[in-house]
Design goal:
Helix content: 40-55%
Number of domains: 2
CATH topology of the largest domain: Arc Repressor Mutant, subunit A
CATH architecture of the largest domain: Orthogonal Bundle
Number of strands: 14
Radius of gyration: 22 Å
CATH class of the largest domain: Mainly Alpha
CATH superfamily of the largest domain: Winged helix-like DNA-binding domain superfamily/Winged helix DNA-binding domain
Strand order of the largest sheet: 9-10-11-12-14-13
Strand content: 15-25%
Distance between the termini: 26 Å
Number of helices: 17
Shape: globular
Largest sheet: 6 strands, mixed
């Protein structure tokens, strides 16, 4: 498991910005990454863990606690102390700059509103995702799909131990973490809602359908989903609807961010159970799409799905500048070209369409269309330029 690329990316941002926000889900490895960065760094490093009462007391007056520090200052779980952001703005504006700040948070800037408002123009954000296919060996891909990318779940001594860790993670998240962020959902309801979303993984989102299924209003569903998206547990893949000549689907697709958490909420422990589960195809689709995006180096705001009300669809459309590349995921070892693929190729003006499949080989299917083995995605899918 190699996460050195993330360390280098954060180091590069620290050289250019007085404040860097390293964001990601709880237990995804932010603290470990910050520790590795501190070990590499020359000079003084001061660390505050804002889940420790003694560190919170040290920062009861943030200006007094921080203004005298030099070198690198690491503030872990910064969402516990949102009033620190205006102080960081003041310290970041000092000349000469006496310290740089690495803040670690388990919520997106949209939830940490003070971060966005106070540090505009001074902060660089870097999102740390769960371990991906580019960070493990090929023989570990099956384990990564089943257990997900949280380090302790992936590296657990057994499938049962991994499942138990993920179950405990979910329990602690809804009982402790969500209330700390002021989430507007009782813990028991949050757990049921999250488990229900697991059954909608890979589907076009209908707020009204979710509201009816859970017995709440559309507004409540939107508010609860915003919290799960903002804490990196759920991802909404937006639709592409620039083509005005067709009736297009304009609601997003819903995916749980981590396949291991998805499987935990579905009650799946072992590979045999996953293979028999009715949501296995949706699970594999979400896992394969993330592998494709990592191979491409896709940035935020470049990924979409496309679907028409007539039935044509594309699982992933990645747009950068004038380049448009399409991807379909098929859990088969012998993919074929479909009418839907040909429509997507022409209507969207794709430079290429790759069909990511479960077999072992990559081979052409038709002009501009090829089959790409999922296990070879990192080698056979060229990065965006």
């Amino acid at each position: 498991m190699d996460r050195s690329a993330h360390v280098k990316a954060v180091e590069a941002r620290l050289r250019e910005h007085p404040v860097v926000a390293l964001l990601g889900a709880r237990q995804v490895g932010k603290t470990t990454l910050a520790g590795e960065l501190a070990r590499r760094r020359k000079g003084v490093v001061t660390r505050f863990d804002l889940e420790r009462p003694e560190d919170l007391r040290r920062l009861s007056d943030p200006i007094l606690g921080l203004e005298h520090l030099r070198g690198l200052v690491v503030l872990d779980e910064v969402q516990r102390l949102p009033e620190i952001f205006p102080v960081l703005r003041v310290l970041a504006d000092r000349r000469p700059l006496r310290a740089r700040f690495l803040v670690l948070g388990s919520a997106a800037p949209e939830l940490l509103r003070q971060s966005s408002e106070s540090l505009a123009g001074r902060v660089a954000h870097y999102q740390l995702d769960p371990i991906g296919v580019d960070e493990v060996k090929a023989e570990a891909l099956g384990r990564l799909w089943l257990r997900g990318g949280f380090p302790r779940a992936l590296l657990a001594r057994s499938e049962r131990a991994s499942h138990e860790w993920r179950d405990e993670f979910v329990r602690a998240f809804v009982e402790r973490d969500l209330p700390q962020l002021g989430a507007p959902m009782p813990p028991a309801a949050a757990h049921r809602f999250w488990a229900m979303l697991a059954h909608y993984h890979g589907q076009v989102l209908s707020y009204s359908e979710l509201g009816r299924a859970f017995g709440v209003s559309d507004v409540t569903v939107r508010r609860w989903l915003d919290v799960l998206v903002g804490t990196f547990m759920v991802r909404l893949l937006p639709p592409w609807h620039a083509n005005l000549g067709k009736r297009l689907v304009k609601a997003p697709k819903l995916y749980l961010t981590d396949s291991g958490i998805l499987h935990s909420l579905l009650g799946v422990v072992r590979h045999e159970e996953l293979e028999r589960h009715p949501r296995v195809g949706a699970s594999w689709e979400g896992f394969a799409l993330r592998a494709v995006e990592r191979a491409l180096g896709a940035r935020r705001g470049e990924s979409y799905f496309w679907a028409t009300h007539a039935g044509a669809e594309l699982d992933l459309l990645v747009v950068r500048g004038r380049t448009r590349r399409g991807f379909e995921v098929k859990r088969t070892t012998s993919p074929t070209v479909t009418k839907s693929m040909r429509i997507a190729l022409e209507d969207l003006g794709l430079s290429s369409l790759d069909v990511v499949h479960a077999g072992r080989e990559t081979f052409p299917l038709a002009p501009r269309i090829r089959a790409v083995a999922a296990r070879r995605a990192l080698l056979d899918i060229s990065p965006l330029r």
